[in-house]
Design brief:
Blueprint: H1 20-31, E1 37-42, H2 49-63, E2 67-72, H3 77-90, H4 99-113, E3 122-126, H5 134-140, E4 145-149, H6 159-169, E5 174-177, E6 191-193, H7 210-219, E7 229-233, H8 242-253, E8 260-265, H9 274-285, E9 291-295, H10 299-308, E10 311-314, H11 323-330, E11 335-338, H12 343-346, E12 353-356, H13 361-372, H14 375-392, H15 395-413
Parallel strand pairs: 1-2, 1-3, 3-4, 4-5, 5-6, 7-8, 7-10, 8-9, 10-11, 11-12
């Protein structure tokens, strides 16, 4: 286990994006958690939404007086192949779960659990990867309260994988999911819904000066920001369906002269499929000079790309929440997204973007053409998107919701 480095964050730094009532609510909830030590555990410090959330949440918790630590698992490629299979199984893949896979999972999680020596009042375990640590942690911290935070889409899980994970989740005190539709498949004593959020202060989301914008644009040459541009930003993952986005782009380009597509994504440290999918996407796009496959861009460059795009697409087949949608909307860029997971919570159809069914390639293409041919509509959708994210999907709101859950579960356990 290791502790990632953290940025400087204080709740006062969010004064421009939250009102005084929200700030007071946060402070009041924090005061309801006196002398509480909280530990967050996940599987990677880079490349995923969970890591991005924790990198901001943990220092703000400390600033509010809630002592909070974050540790990340140390694991082998073999372990991450198993946990990616578990992730895929919970999202609907029906590949077998073997005894060898279970053995690998147990060995690595137990070894990591043995490295945690401090004692905490509340332990938050993120996603399936660290769940196997639970039994050992219960031995060393028998008085702690355990919360499982599930960030993935579990509306249609493989029964085999769900049963394996439920053997652990049934032992936690509480579970948190990102959408109410996921609660039915979580076996835990109690569940709560907390929508994720973006941090408007990170390099990926904060305002950028014109000189930086021009510099970062030049670094993305031959991509042009003077021609129509559609972008999808997501991990290279089979559930993100970059191939469907590519097909929708080809259909839209028949109606929009000079249209370009950027497929940008990073490699999460706990996702062994990423490189394989990236290579497949790059090969599929290799003969088209208007398609730009970009990987591991610095956060500032992603920010510039999302701001400079005319439309952002998120054509996921499954999606736990999809914070890249709020990232784009925050930058006043309309989104065409699949009607799955947390995307319809963020995209208001006909107001800040459009929703389509996940297999509707033609629907994506049609909505792209509609937006690309109507600048006034794009501008109105962009303004609506910014306001929607400000009201619902910024970090202080999520933190208040989390504190509310923590207060409830600790009071119940006491």
């Amino acid at each position: 286990m290791h502790s990632p480095s953290l940025p400087n964050r204080s709740i006062e730094m969010y004064g421009s994006v939250i009102d005084s009532d929200q700030l007071e609510r946060l402070r009041s909830l924090a005061e309801s958690l006196p002398d509480v030590r909280v530990l967050h555990v996940n599987s990677t410090a880079t490349g995923g939404g969970v890591a991005e959330l924790l990198r901001s949440i943990v220092p703000v918790c400390d600033d509010l007086g809630v002592q909070t630590d974050w540790v990340v698992m140390d694991a082998t490629d073999e372990f991450f192949e198993v946990t990616k299979a578990i992730h895929n199984g919970l999202q609907g893949d029906r590949s077998p779960l073997t005894e060898s896979m279970k053995s690998t999972y147990r060995a690595v999680t137990e070894r990591n659990a043995a490295e945690i020596e401090d004692v905490y009042d509340l332990v938050v375990i993120h996603d399936p990867q660290p769940l196997g640590m639970l039994e050992r942690l219960e031995e060393t911290m028998p008085n702690a309260t355990y919360v499982w935070r599930c960030h993935i889409d579990i509306t249609d899980p493989s029964e085999e994988y769900l049963a394996f994970v439920s053997g652990y989740t049934s032992r936690v005190d509480h579970a948190i999911v990102s959408r109410s539709a996921y609660e039915a498949n979580v076996e835990a004593p109690k569940t709560s819904v907390v929508h994720p959020s973006i941090d408007p202060l990170t390099k990926k989301n904060r305002s950028i000066d014109e000189e930086t914008i021009e510099t970062e644009r030049d670094r993305m040459d031959p991509l042009s920001f003077d021609a129509p541009l559609v972008t999808q930003v997501s991990r290279f993952d089979p559930w993100k369906d970059q191939f469907g986005t590519l097909e929708a782009f080809h259909r839209a380009r028949e109606h929009v002269t000079g249209l370009q597509l950027a497929l940008a994504g990073g490699m999460a440290g706990d996702d062994p499929e990423g490189l394989e999918i990236y290579e497949q996407v790059a090969e599929a796009a290799a003969d088209d000079p208007d398609v730009h496959v970009l990987t591991d861009l610095p956060d500032t460059r992603v920010n510039v790309l999302q701001r400079g795009s005319d439309v952002v697409v998120q054509k996921s087949l499954r999606e736990g929440f999809g914070l890249v949608v709020s990232e784009a909307l925050w930058k006043r860029t309309p989104v065409v997204g699949s009607n799955v997971g947390g995307i319809p919570l963020q995209v208001e159809h006909g107001q800040n973007g459009y929703l389509v069914e996940p297999d509707d390639v033609q629907g994506v293409a049609d909505h792209l053409v509609t937006l690309l041919e109507d600048e006034d509509r794009r501008t109105a959708f962009g303004s609506n998107g910014r306001a929607h994210v400000r009201d619902h999907f910024l970090l202080p709101r999520q933190l208040a919701d989390l504190f509310g859950v923590f207060v409830t579960v600790l009071e119940r356990d006491s």
